[in-house]
Design a protein that fits this description.
The protein is 23% helix and 25% strand. It contains eleven helices and 33 strands. By secondary structure, it is α/β, with parallel strands linked by helices. The chain has a 17-stranded parallel sheet that branches. A seven-stranded mixed sheet has the order 5-4-1-6-10-7-11, sandwiched between helices. Strands 27-29-32 form a three-stranded parallel sheet, with no helix packed on it. The protein binds uridine-diphosphate-N-acetylglucosamine and calcium ion. The site of calcium ion has 3 residues, from loops.
């Protein structure tokens, strides 16, 4: 990377981006996990400039708020009513000068020595980038800056050649290859429109040259705007060296003006990210259906199965397998864990743990080493210790589970009383029964067992068995009395009229199983439709006398 440090990077982000047809300003639309202006800021930061200024106007509060969230010490510059990229940079230069002077004045007032005279403000190289060129990276900017410093240029512009240069400013070169200037598409002659080398909108300027040239740009052009591009011809006219650095990778300088272009850029960006990780030793079975944000970190020998999206600050460590059809945002997956068909955010999955298929990990889920969050399980603010399992059909919210505990199928941590959320705990080496309700806050000790269907309203001390379901009662004839005229009542009546034995009042399936259990070679149950696997259906026309009982 470059050793030169620019005085400032100015990011142009005042435009509306009308072709996006959006209430959201164009520079806040996202791809690969960052807004477009976020990508510009990341590239700018890579140069380690003294200051980063962002020029705003359309939806200025939204853009400024977003920028300051990413970079609290960014200088926000408001552009006035005068349109054009040149005006944007004029505004930025005067605000940066004022910022520098304010800092110098503050340093003077804080010192006991004689005050130093104020400087000229901005001096040295100044980089200008657009807020809508998301794939421009710090490396390319550093190369541009290096060329500028090494060659002693007044202006250095980043260019590329396009097959179709429609809409872009064209680079007009002299016979010796130096840059004479830039002409905008709308101002170009037919001959100039043939030029395929275009202005990327990324430049390095010498501050003094920039300040002087911006003092004499006008609005005499097809769009009536102050063009930043006019600075190049003006710099040349005063004897400065104006050169171009041409990149042969047009993607780096591609701007996004509408949502269709954004999707094309997004796909290419993703293609590069997935290719990068594959070259780092990650298996990505289907890069086309795998989406990975720029901030994601993957270790060697991670496997990503098709249909997986890894967003935000997700980290996947070696040997882990993620997917298929999994979406994770800000999730850390430790080595050798498996996460299958899962949707999760702001969570941590321990080493060799397993999650899914069909799990929903909400923020604050922490699964220990070799732990398990199984099928149709939702978790939130749930710390599940090493070797502990929540395998089936459960909701674990606001709970801490110790080690080697098993939470029975179909259990719910009832964490909300309608007003407040409460937290529960379950100790280590406990086994809770199926279909338990943990009415929070409730605390279950170590080595506890609970019966199936227990409603836990009271704490359970270590080593206890907790049961709350009463003994089963069968209330004879209830269905025919209390649910008359229903299919159930008719089935009950039929069974009663046929005077079946108690055993035969069980369903067909149960009878078959009983018969099988009593004699492995037993014939199919007498009363079924013959086949034990078939469900018992009453023929619509059947009357009691047609019953096939022997
Ligand atoms: C600009 C260049 C053109 C170049 C192209 C590359 C000028 C005059 N033209 O044209 O040579 O090929 O970029 O993409 O510079 N902006 C402001 N304030 C304004 C106008 C624009 O901050 O008053 C910002 C926009 O938000 C955007 C950037 O400047 O981030 C470029 O503006 P845009 O309108 O897209 O310029 P182009 O017409 O594409
Ligand atoms: Ca543009």
């Amino acid at each position: 990377m470059t050793s030169a440090q620019p005085a400032a990077v100015i990011v142009l982000a005042a435009g509306e981006g009308t072709r996006m047809k959006s209430a959201t300003p164009k520079v806040l639309h996202t791809l690969a996990g960052r807004s477009m202006v976020g990508h510009a800021l990341a590239a700018a930061q890579g140069l380690n400039p003294e200051r980063i200024a962002v020029v705003v106007r359309f939806e200025r509060d939204k853009v400024a708020h977003h920028v300051l969230e990413i970079l609290p010490d960014a200088v926000i510059v408001d552009q006035d009513d005068v349109p054009g990229t040149g005006r944007a940079v004029q505004c930025a230069v005067s605000v940066l000068d004022a910022t520098i002077h304010a800092a110098e004045a503050a340093a003077n007032s804080g010192s006991t020595q004689n005050p130093l005279p104020l400087s000229d403000g901005l001096s040295g190289p100044v980089v200008v980038v657009s807020g809508d060129v998301p794939m421009l990276d710090a490396e390319t900017l550093a190369e541009l800056l290096d060329a500028h410093v090494t060659d002693g240029n007044a202006v250095t512009v980043l260019t590329t050649e396009l097959r179709d240069a429609t809409g872009y400013g064209r680079i007009v070169r002299e016979g010796d290859g130096s840059v004479a200037g830039i002409v905008e598409h709308k101002d170009a002659t037919p001959e100039q429109l043939e030029i395929r080398e275009i202005n990327s909108g990324t430049y390095v300027f010498d501050s003094a040259v920039l300040r002087r040239a911006l003092g004499s740009v006008d609005r005499n052009n097809a769009q009536g705007e102050v063009y930043l591009t006019d600075v190049l011809a003006l710099a040349r006219a005063e004897g400065g060296a104006v050169r171009a650095v041409r990149t042969d990778d047009p993607w780096l300088v591609e701007g996004a003006n509408d949502r269709a272009q954004m999707s094309v850029l997004r796909a290419e960006f993703n293609r590069r990210i997935t290719e990068f990780w594959m070259k780092e030793g990650v298996t990505i079975v289907d890069p086309a259906t795998t989406w990975i944000d720029v901030q994601v970190e993957l270790e060697q020998d991670v496997t990503i199965l098709p249909g997986t999206q890894l967003f935000g600050e997700t980290v996947v460590r070696t040997g882990a397998v993620v997917g298929p059809d999994t979406t994770l945002e800000n999730v850390v997956i430790e080595s050798n864990a498996t996460v299958t068909r899962t949707h999760g955010s702001d969570s941590r999955i321990g080493e060799s743990a397993t999650v899914g298929p069909f799990a929903y990990l909400r923020p604050g889920t922490e699964l220990g080493v070799k732990g398990k969050i199984g099928t149709f399980v939702e978790t939130k603010n749930a710390k599940i210790g090493n070797g502990s399992k929540v395998p089936h059909l459960s909701y674990a919210g606001d709970v801490e589970v110790g080690e080697a505990t098993n939470i029975g199928a179909g259990s719910i941590f009832v964490n909300y009383d309608g007003v407040n959320k409460h937290r529960s705990t379950v100790g280590s080496f406990s086994r809770t029964g199926a279909n338990n309700l943990f009415i929070a806050p409730v605390h279950i000790g170590d080595g506890v067992y609970t019966g199936a269907g227990t409603v836990l309203r009271k704490d359970v001390p270590a080593g206890n068995l907790a049961v709350s379901a009463g003994a089963q009662r069968n209330i004879e004839g209830w269905v025919e009395r209390r649910r008359p005229e229903t299919d159930s009542a008719r089935a009950a009546a039929k069974a009663r009229e046929l005077n079946l034995t108690a055993q035969n009042t069980l369903g067909a399936q149960a009878r078959a199983e009983l018969a099988r259990a009593e004699s492995p070679k037993a014939a199919p149950v007498p009363n079924g439709n013959g086949n034990a696997n078939q469900s018992y259906t009453v023929p619509e026309t059947s009357t009691p006398s047609e019953g096939n009982i022997d």
